[in-house]
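URGENT: need a sanity check before tomorrow's submission.

F., can you look over the 26S proteasome regulatory subunit 7 record below? I want to be sure the sequence and structure line up before it goes out.
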Amino acid sequence: VARCTKIINADSNDPKYIINVKQFAKFVVDLADSVAPTDIEEGMRVGVDRNKYQIHIPLPPKIDPTVTMMQVEEKPDVTYSDVGGCKEQIEKLREVVETPLLHPEKFVKLGIEPPKGVLLFGPPGTGKTLCARAVANRTDACFIRVIGSELVQKYVGEGARMVRELFEMARSKKACLIFFDEIDAIGGARFDDGAGGDNEVQRTMLELINQLDGFDPRGNIKVLMATNRPDTLDPALMRPGRLDRKVEFGLPDLEGRAHIFRIHARSMSVERDIRFDLLARLCPNSTGAEIRSVCTEAGMFAIRARRKVATEKDFLEAVNKVIKSYAKFSATPRYMTYN
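Structure tokens as predicted:
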């Protein structure tokens, strides 16, 4: 097995092919009679006869199993109706991601290029990952979820290779949505401190930047990135053309918190006429994840009391346990400023 690195005299009747065997041996070879010149492209894996040193068969690209496992096989079951407190953010995502995939002709008629990538940023638990899954559900696109720390590898060049193979796999799909969660693990600003580990992370980020610039702007690949710390990202990654839109996910307002309570209560056995607006007022500066924890804790109170439904009193006690006790724990000036 070798890789064709260059084609010499491709337009002539007798082209030659430079192949690379195991990264250290290079040979100039011909094609076997059973292979047509149009079957071989630069960068392709090929099967070579060791005796005659001829290319006998083109091979499909080899993708690391670690990269293949990043693809979410099942369609995400989250819809826009399952996301609360993010109405404005959902509209921005639909405009940037959903419209180019479902209606590309609109951009062709206007003669503009659709946005390539979107950065989702905000405090933890505000719905960044949830919105990404909802967009993937709506577009019927292949959904690839990548954790930033998965691209930080032990050996030099491994992280950059995984990024290349990731986009190579995405190009083979009809439509693909790549979601990089915790992108600050590899996208941090560069410093000239000479540390070997940081240099490897920087190589991975530079390969990611190259891939963002390289694919067709009207292609089938859309990139979403999420982070809690946008201030730490490298400016080269943030510039328009790579990440065209920045969508902020803030803490939900009163109406958003009440909507989140109703979303989680839909799947619970609760009594009627629960005042979700009152519960929302009792949870100021709370994220959607904290409200979900309140609903879970309300169900636990009902289970302890051996009741089949959760009451408003259970929700009030859950608010006092989850929100109030957490507020005491996190009542520091830095936390309050961030929220």
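My own read: The longest strand covers residues 2-8. The chain has a mean pLDDT of 82. If you see anything odd, call me.
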